[in-house]
Amino acid sequence: MIEASGLLLTAEDKEKMTAADFGLSQIKKEGVQILTMFQTNRIAGKILVLLPYQTEPEHWHPTVGDDPGKEEVIRAISGDLYFYIPGESTIEKGFIVEGKEDCYTMRNEVHLKPGDQLVLPAGTKHWFQAGEKGAVMYSFSTTVTDLNDQFTDPNIIRETIIEGEPSKAY
What is the DSSP-derived secondary structure letter of residue 13? Predict the structure, then answer.
């Protein structure tokens, strides 16, 4: 999807791709694919990919010690992308993951088309979802503190844990 959006990926980029299922084991419904392009002590750049109708669960980037929390700028690259942030309920195109009405409390829908961007101040509760073709976006932020993210869904485990023996794919 990244390459189909017109972005060049190196072999090293492809090796660095990760996926987060947030411990929910239903990655095609709730999850995100991540390519960290760069990360320093002060700034980070990522490419995020959502599969068709995939949702990244509701979360926020909290204050930790003297750090006010991660500030993030999202810029849509391809596909239809729906962000849900504080404000009046305007949800129209997206949907709440079945059975999780209490875990998706932000209902102010912001539709981002390729080239559109959204600034998320630190501490802003948000979630996002792709339309039928999936979505690719840039995420530029202050220092990455993802393991400190807080989630509305109490079942979420931020760090992916793989259990069992890896399968052999030869």
Answer: H
Asked if 111 and 68 touch (Cβ cutoff 8 Å), the reply is: no
**Distance from C-alpha of 163 to C-alpha of 165, rounded to nearest angstrom:** 7
pTM over 0.85: yes
CA distance 18 to 104: 24
CA distance 168 to 155: 30
Are the C-beta atoms of 148 and 60 separated by less than 8 Å? no
- Tell me, what's the pLDDT at 126? 98
Contact (Cβ atoms closer than 8 angstroms) between residue 142 and residue 43: yes
Is pLDDT above 50 for 168?
Answer: no
Place of tokens 């195109």: 93
Cβ neighbourhood burial of 42 (10 Å; 0-12, 13-18, 19+):
exposed
Cα 47 from Cα 45, distance rounded (Å): 7
